[in-house]
Amino acid sequence: MLFPWKVATPFQTGATSMSTSLLYHAFGLRGYDYIKTEYTEGCVVFTVHQRPHTCRCPQCGSRDVVHHGHETRTFKTVPIGHKPCLSSCPSQRVECRRCHSVRQAPLPFADPRRRYTRAFERYALELSRLMTIQDVAQHLGVSWDTIKDIQKRDLHTASRSRAWAELQADRHRRDQHRPRPPLPDRGPQLGNRRRGLRRRR
Q1: Position with higher pLDDT, 164 vs 111
Q2: Which positions ≥6 away from 92 have C-beta within 8 Å?
Q3: Pairing status of strand 32-40 against strand 65-80
Q4: Three-state secondary structure string covering 81-127
Q5: What's the whole-model pTM score?
Q6: How many CB atoms lie within 10 A of CB 73?
Q7: Where are the domains of the chain?
């Protein structure tokens, strides 16, 4: 007698908890819910949606906002093996009730005017320490200019951090060698106070 073969899974049909956890730990998408997965043109496309309570005003940071439509954007993210992965999500346009500004809400996982996520940027920098720019670009399926731009931005950030650390160290050295003013002599005042206490007694 033959029985149909099935794979047992602890999740019910339509459950998205496992996929949402994967997006958070593997791709750095925090505050987003998983919607669906599509396989188009050899790419894995994850469609996600931002949770309403995480949407803030880009001007003052208030959560009291009104949504005025959205624009679907697609970002390049960390690949799974040799499969390139894309993240598709709506970019909300919000109106703040506190400062009355109408702007495009920033995305927490990508920098402005960039078509890739921060996780993708970190992965490209890690590969750049072991491979050439051309090899990294070919492996990730992007142009040579994209990898070069990522490296330039990383060097600029590192130089600013190094300059800030040197400035703080220089201030600390100057504070150590700076002569401190002498403390006021309070001996006679303390003696007069003691004499006054004795007279009162």
Answers
A1: 111
A2: 50, 55, 67, 70, 104, 105
A3: unpaired
A4: CCEEEEEEEEEEEEEECCCCCEEECCCCCCCCCCCECHHHHHHHHHH
A5: 0.65
A6: 14
A7: 15-109, 111-176
Task: Say whether 150 sits in a helix, a strand or coil.
Answer: helix
Rounded Cα–Cα distance for residues 94 and 58 (Å):
9
Six-digit token string for 162? 């190094």
Amino acid at 101: S
Closest CA to 140 of 88, 76, 89: 76
- CA-to-CA distance for 167 and 180, rounded, in angstroms? 21
Q: Which residue type does 34 have?
A: Y
Contact (Cβ atoms closer than 8 angstroms) between residue 35 and residue 49? yes
66, 94 contact by CB (below 8 A): yes
Q: Is 116 exposed, middle or buried (0-12, 13-18, 19+ CB in 10 A)?
A: buried
Query: 59: buried, middle or exposed (CB in 10 Å: 19+, 13-18, 0-12)?
Result: middle
Judged by DSSP in three states, 33 sits in strand
Q: With contact defined as beta carbons under 8 Å apart, do 78 and 123 qualify?
A: yes
Provide the pLDDT for residue 9. 38
The token pair that represents 147 in the structure block: 């990898």
Mean pLDDT for the stretch of residues 121-135: 91
Kindly state the tokens that stand for 80: 């799974």
Residue that is written with structure tokens 């201030």 in the block? 171
* Three-state SS at 1: coil
